[in-house]
Amino acid sequence: MLSASLLSLIVACYSIPSYSQEKASLYIIININNPVETLTTQEVRAIFLSMVNSYPDGKRAIPINLPSNSLANKAFMEKVLYKNKRSLRTYWTRLLFTGRGKLPTVLKQPADIIKAVSQTQQAIGYFVGGLEELNSYEESNNIMVVMTIPLESPIETPLIIKTS
Amino acid sequence: MNQTSSHSQSKSNSGSKLLTLIGLTFLISNSFPANAFSFDKPVQLSGFLSFGGGLTDAKAFPGGDDPNDPEDEANPSEDTPRYTAGSGHFILDDTLSFDQDTKAGLQLDFTIDEKTSATLQFISYAYANNFQANLSWAYISYSLIPDLVFRGGRFRLPIYFTSDYLDIGVAYTWITPPTEVYSTINMSNLTGVDLLYSRQVGNWVWATQPFLGTSKFERDDFQSVFKNLLGINSSLNQENIQLRIAYMKYEYSIQPWPLGNNHALLIQQLLDAGMTNLEENINPNGSTTEFLTFGLSWHKNRWGVQTEWAKRNNTRSLPDIEGYYITLLYQYRHWQPHITFAARKELNESSRFHPDLAQLSITSPLLATFTETLIHSATNIEDNEIESITIGLTVSFSDYMIGKFELSEIRNIESTGFFEFATKHDKNHILKFAIDLTF
């Protein structure tokens, strides 16, 4: 009884991670009002590495990243950026101290990225999980998936963490 | 107020101004209201610090290595030959020194609006005025379109692969980039304007940067001035490969000219002897210099290769220089061993002197010798030819701090190499270590 109450309290106050043993995918998302319909891996990579600051149509792109200790970020580094932690760190350091480009804004949770992309026409972000979780968000109506990269191994980690 | 106290007052003022600026930065950055989707921070403060030391085993050779080589400068006081690498200041001798690779810097990036930003970078070097901070960068950027940025102010001269982050040890493998290439042009900053443009071309990203301005290189005894400096760099990037080319042209002058009383006397004697053309030839003021460099960087899995080649062509009697390096590196967990082969040589040793010098050596051998000595001493180490092999090891202590250890064998192929005076052996060694961090 006590456990059930405690659980209810946690549900009410804190986020609930949804876990999956299924093979998840890496989704690249943009705002529904962004005229861009597709992006190549190379184009996404160039935007996130600040090699270019625009979409192929010339409009400004605002990349949003997840924390470097997240599994989604690790998958993104391997599958899109083609960089390991060390080489990416060196790359960011160069970028930071050349004044030539800006590091992507980092948001803590995938839910924050979904919210930010849904509210910002120029934003581009990513998350790891399933479309069911994405569709459970109110903001999903304003989101468009431009790339899906299936991940080879199942992940045992919170997929999309809803924040209350 | 005496000169010493005036100097320390100046340093104190400089330090307090820097502290005031940093304090203001924190105030500004904390005064902006938090906005969940405000993607541009109004102010970003970043810093870097390097601590390093090193020494060389070079032994003095008082008489000079080769009496027939006028550039192989004798070292009558038997001082330990100092490895200066053309830097114009002390680098290494046989005593462990911590000055050369110890430095600290702060960078402030101000976002003014979506299109405009300003950047300031302060750097202080242990070897320069006892850590006095200097404004290394100060420029404003305006984004004309997302991928076309105009910049004006003082910024890095963008000619080499690592030019933009030359002082940021964390950003490259070596303790310092190979001197054989990176000393081909001694200046590192440019005051002027540039354009940054990039675009996606198929699977490649093409970036280019035309630039225009002036620069200076100061030593204790003279100042080099680079006017009408214009150039362009261009690079192609793909998943694991980067190709780069840069070209630059400038008008060179040296101040003061003549360099001293003896020099002035020599010039007057040349003019008195009717050697007007020869005098003009040894006068570098107003001469044009061209510079070209290529670079290639390739990484695959744990392996990486980086190479650069640079060539500088001068008019008149100044030496033409060519240098290159190739680095092979391997990454295993937190460790990254590497090996670098580098070389540099003068290309026009036999042709750069005016034909009248040969005639003068017949009519007035003493004056010809003095003239030749002057030309050599003015160009200093640039007349030399060297090769080096460096093995190094880098270890990551954390995401923001790395340690480096390097052992180099420096071979003086001709003359004193990168050493100030003749060394007893043509093979000398340098041992260096460094700790680099960013914050």
Can you describe what's shown?
The complex is a heterodimer of chains A (164) and B (439). Chain A has 164 residues and is of the alpha/beta class. Chain A has one domain: Periplasmic binding protein-like II (D-Maltodextrin-Binding Protein, domain 2, 3-Layer(aba) Sandwich). Chain A is 37% helix and 17% strand. Chain A has six helices and five strands; from the N terminus they run αβαβααβαβαβ. In chain A, strands 3-2-4-1-5 form a five-stranded mixed beta sheet, sandwiched between helices. Helix content of chain B is 17%, strand content 45%. In chain B, α5 packs across α6. With 439 residues, chain B is α+β, with helices and mostly antiparallel strands. In chain B, strands 1-2-3-4-5-6-7-8-9-10-11-12-13-14-15-16 form a 16-stranded antiparallel barrel. Chains A and B meet through α2, α4 and α5 of A and β4 and β6 of B.
CATH domain class of chain A: Alpha Beta
Contiguous low-pLDDT stretches of chain A (5 residues minimum) are 1-20, 156-164
Total domain count of chain A: 1
**What is the subunit arrangement here?**
heterodimer
Show the largest interface: A-B, 39 and 43 residues
Number of strands of chain B: 16
| Helix fraction bin of chain A | 25-40%
Q: Briefly note the CATH topology name of chain A.
A: D-Maltodextrin-Binding Protein, domain 2
User: Which range best describes the helical content of chain B: under 10%, 10-25%, 25-40%, 40-55%, 55-70% or over 70%?
Assistant: 10-25%
Number of strands of chain A: 5
**Radius of gyration of chain B, taken over Cα atoms and rounded to an integer in Å:** 24 Å
Write down the overall geometry of chain A: globular
The ordered H/E elements of chain B are HEEEEEHEEEEHHEEEEHHEEE
**Which series of helices and strands of chain A comes N to C?**
HEHEHHEHEHE
Strand content of chain B: over 45%
Major sheet attributes of chain B: 16 strands, antiparallel, barrel
Q: How confident overall, as mean pLDDT of chain B?
A: 82
What is the rounded Rg of chain A? Answer: 17 Å
Distance between the termini of chain A: 24 Å
Determine the N-to-C terminus distance of chain B: 39 Å
Structural class of chain B: alpha+beta
